[in-house]
Amino acid sequence: DRAKLVRSIPGVVLINTALKGDCLVLGVDIEEHLLVTVLTQMEELKSWTISCVDTTDRDTFSYLAGWKLIPRVDKSGMYQLIVSLKGQGWRSRDAEMNKRNQLLEMVKDFNIGKIVHGEGETILLVGHVLECVAYSDCLRNLFSLERRHTWQPKPASNSELIQPVPDQERHFWLKVKCPELRNLSTAHKQYSVFHQLSTAGKVLQLEHQLFGAEDNYLVVYSGLGDNKVPILGQQFCLMEIWRDSLPDVYIPTYGVDIWGFYSVSGQFPADLGDETRNKFAEDMKTSGAVGFRSGESEESFSLHFVNSRCLEQISRCAQYNNFRLTILSSLVRKASLDRKLRKLVP
Length: 346
Known about the structure:
Elements: H1 2-8, E1 12-18, E2 23-28, H2 32-43, E3 52-53, E4 70-71, E5 79-84, H3 92-106, E6 114-118, E7 121-126, H4 129-139, E8 144-146, E9 150-151, E10 170-176, H5 179-182, H6 186-197, E11 202-208, E12 216-222, E13 236-241, E14 262-267, H7 274-286, E15 289-294, E16 300-305, H8 309-315, E17 326-327, E18 341-342
Antiparallel strand pairs: 1-2, 3-18, 4-9, 5-7, 5-8, 6-7, 10-12, 10-13, 11-12, 14-16, 14-17, 15-16
């Protein structure tokens, strides 16, 4: 219960969904000795399993370094996106409803925890600060947003940034700014973005529509070195994040191929009717397929996707077992997370 955490712990600023969605990571503005006392008291309630996170080696909130103002959770423990829908004149009510419908259509793929409608505004509640930032950037293009819950960071006692370990996988949140790229189809955009990212290093994974937001990607580089930052020009905006800065739902498990896609091969059964073939094609599009390629034989084919999770969905399509669907993309093994938890009481 996020609201109960906010009531119980003074100075809660950040609450992010983590791991499989069954964990929360908190950022708290409080003296350490006071925090230890509060958490020790909360442990006695047996409501949560709580541990402090040692950020000596890496800070899961390091992506906020240098920000002058950051979103803060409200009393419910969620991040608010307050969208103004106010209109003017005698038809303002109709205009407000039209704006609301436009808003709901725009956020249908967003990971929204709750939607609250009020007079002249709609409040969207989300559970991760990066979702809040991504959605805010998208919504500002069409709507007026109001800020009510923010926090001004304090100077850190140790301002030295932690450098990634050489040759490890490095994760970046990428935004496409180039109008020409933004106007491409999903498949052409994936290929073009992958091609340009590859000029800076080996792209291991490329997730389309990170957070459900258009023109946002998660890119995972392999072997960039200890402090190399990809130089991609003004058509992209890039921000490095740790693997465990995001919940598992956003982390891909397969790698992309040499064209930047997650791929599956298959073979049409003999004597397949047109109706079944067409239904298969529509089902694959619904599952996220953006490309189809004929194989070496007349009945063989490959399907191409822009999100790793689509392959997992395809592998569970029991009704198409006779299509011999086989995942071509390599499974990328992820190291278990090490948050270096330390005891609350010495």
